[in-house]
Amino acid sequence: MAAPDELFCWEGDWGLPSVSTDCLVVLAYAQFAGAPLKLRKMSNPWRSPSGLLPTLRTNQKENLTRPSDIIIHLRKQKYNADYDLSAKEGADSLAFISLLEQKLKPALVYTFWVEPKNYVDVTRRWYAEHMPFPLNLFLPGQMQRSQMEKLRLLRGDESLEPGEELEKELYRDATECLNLLSQRLGSNKFFFGDSPSSLDAFVFGHLAPVLRCKLPNGKLQQHLRSLDNLSGFCSNVLLLYFPRDGPESGGPKASSQAAAPDGGDFDHVPNKRRKQVLSVLVALGAMLSYALLTGMVSIQQEALEEPPDLEPITAHGEDEDG
């Protein structure tokens, strides 16, 4: 029997299986479809096969990084959470996923990566504390610049600059999207009845970080929390499919220990292990510097990008320290 595909994704916090929207989408879909993935959680994207998170490493040694491509691959492997949807429901699902991308995602990028207080107090702080040295010195800033470029691309405006007017416009669109999602969900358990689909995975991935993270500027968060059915939907998905990462887990440290007793954050590695890791990092740094100086390797900016932004995916799930 072939070994399962490997999924590399950002580690969790805030009672979530991952802090990344894209990782959450993939993790939720894999859970809904029953895909037997070998899970590797980490806080160092350079340790993934592609340099990006999420990455699905297939049995054919192919690296997939976009959630849509990963989901298509899982469907080809007969893990299809949309199998029971009618043609109309399938069309509705695509329409709402497109709405998420156009109306909600720009506001999420702004909320976590552009809004000054949220970025400094939450986003940059989280990545700087969880990434290994020396990545934590420069990679969060690189990721923020990439996210600003992503926002300009999503809005179709290369000259787009942060400001009060932009924030109002983005939050207005996001509020409209949330209201439409709330109306579509109604009193249902999931968007198309009693079984979750790809739309449920996308909605969960986009909403859960906003709902669970403690944000200094929580305008979007306040509106989401006022929509009881959407808040309940996210809590329900966590309870049913990620019970070890939910509110009862006691926070990120407790969930990390429950998932992988031998893993943990870089700062909690025992002294001997920490010295070993630092030694490896120093050696890798020297090798990379030599490769760059000799022209053997070039670093491309796209390899540093990560979307803003996920046991029983498989019994093989494990955390890896950064």
Describe this structure in a few short sentences.
This protein has 322 residues and is mainly alpha-helical. The chain contains eleven helices and five strands; from the N terminus they run βαβββααααααααααβ.
Descriptive account of the structure:
There is one protein chain. With 322 residues, the chain is mostly helical. It is 55% helix and 5% strand. The protein contains 11 helices and 5 strands, in the order E-H-E-E-E-H-H-H-H-H-H-H-H-H-H-E. It has helices at 21-33, 67-76, 87-114, 116-130, 135-155, 164-185, 198-212, 219-226, 228-241, 252-259, 271-293, and strands at 6-10, 38-42, 55-57, 63-64, 318-319. It has a 5-stranded mixed beta sheet with strand order 4-3-1-2-5. Helix 3 (87-114) packs across helix 4. Residues 248-280, 289-312 and 314-318 have low confidence and may be disordered.
Keywords:
322 residues; mainly alpha; 11 helices; 55% helix
Record the SSE blueprint.
Blueprint: E1 6-10, H1 21-33, E2 38-42, E3 55-57, E4 63-64, H2 67-76, H3 87-114, H4 116-130, H5 135-155, H6 164-185, H7 198-212, H8 219-226, H9 228-241, H10 252-259, H11 271-293, E5 318-319
SSE string, helix = H, strand = E? EHEEEHHHHHHHHHHE
Please, how many helices? 11
Q: Which regions have little confidence, pLDDT < 50, spanning 5+ residues?
A: 248-280, 289-312, 314-318
The largest sheet is:
5 strands, mixed
For the terminal residues, how far apart are their CA atoms? 31 Å
The quaternary state of the protein chains shown equals single chain
Strand content: 5-15%
Tally of extended strands? 5
Using the CA coordinates, give the radius of gyration. 19 Å
Question: How helical, in percent, are the residues?
Answer: 40-55%
Structural class: mainly alpha
Task: Give the rounded overall mean pLDDT.
Answer: 80
Structural shape: globular
